[in-house]
Each structure stands twice: as structure tokens, then as C-alpha cells.
Design goal:
Blueprint lengths: L7 H7 L10 E2 L3 E3 L5 E3 L4 E2 L1 H16 L4 E3 L11 E8 L2 E9 L6 E5 L7 E4 L3
């Protein structure tokens, strides 16, 4: 069974925008191979903890619920990259589809569950 996702523009028009949350880039470190050569880790990566906080705020403001939101780590920070975060509320679990608008860390997100819509935008500093 697949969840239908409402168009972002429809939900964003009816939803609060979360403009106060900033998505910051989290750069990776370095690693050594067997020959002792040090290479930089791939990056930059999107700070998905900030995305999770923005989704938590949207759920609180739009659904009047508390939520625990988890997003995958080490998502490359690049325009068009899409991933899914999961929110746990008193009503169960919901998925949020997150799409990066640019390579600066700005994202849009929308609830995949039409019965409990919530959407927003985060803006990088």
C-alpha cells in the first residue's frame, strides 16, 4: 500500500510556514585507508536534526500534538534530493517527504498522510 502525497503547494498554502528553523550543513570528517592515505568524507551533508525539529514544530502548531521525529543521517546536501522522516504522535506514526529546494540546505516537507496534513519550509541562514 502506498501513501498518496498531496502537492506541496496546496499544503503550504493552507499550512504554517516554519521560517524560524534553519537547516545547517554538517560536514563530514576524514578517514584513512589501508595505505595510510587520509581522504575527506563525502559531504557536505544536510543537518537532518534541524529538519526533524522543524517538522516537530509544524506538528505541534498545525496538529496541536507533540511528536518525536527521526530523519536519516548523512543525506547529501544537494538540490532535488528527497528523503523520508518519520514522526511518532499519540495517533501513531506518520511519514514526511522532505525535498531539498537547493544546495544551501533549504527544504520543503509534506506529510504523506492526507488525513493529518502538515507541511512547512525550512530556510538556511
Amino acid at each position: 500500500m502506498s501513501a498518496r502525497v498531496r502537492p506541496t503547494s496546496t499544503l503550504l498554502g493552507a499550512s504554517l510556514a516554519v521560517g524560524c528553523a534553519a537547516v545547517l550543513a554538517a560536514c563530514g570528517g576524514s578517514s584513512s585507508d589501508d595505505a595510510g592515505t587520509t581522504t575527506a568524507a563525502q559531504g557536505p551533508f544536510l543537518d537532518t536534526k534541524v529538519v526533524a525539529l522543524a517538522i516537530t514544530d509544524s506538528i505541534r502548531n498545525q496538529r496541536d500534538m507533540t511528536a518525536e521525529v527521526t530523519c536519516p543521517e548523512q543525506i547529501p546536501q544537494a538540490k532535488g534530493v528527497t528523503f523520508v522522516c518519520e514522526a511518532a504522535t499519540r495517533n501513531g506514526r506518520s511519514e514526511f517527504v522532505v525535498t531539498q529546494k537547493d544546495d544551501q540546505g533549504n527544504v520543503d516537507y509534506v506529510a504523506a498522510d492526507e488525513d493529518e496534513p502538515a507541511a512547512g519550509t525550512t530556510t538556511a541562514p
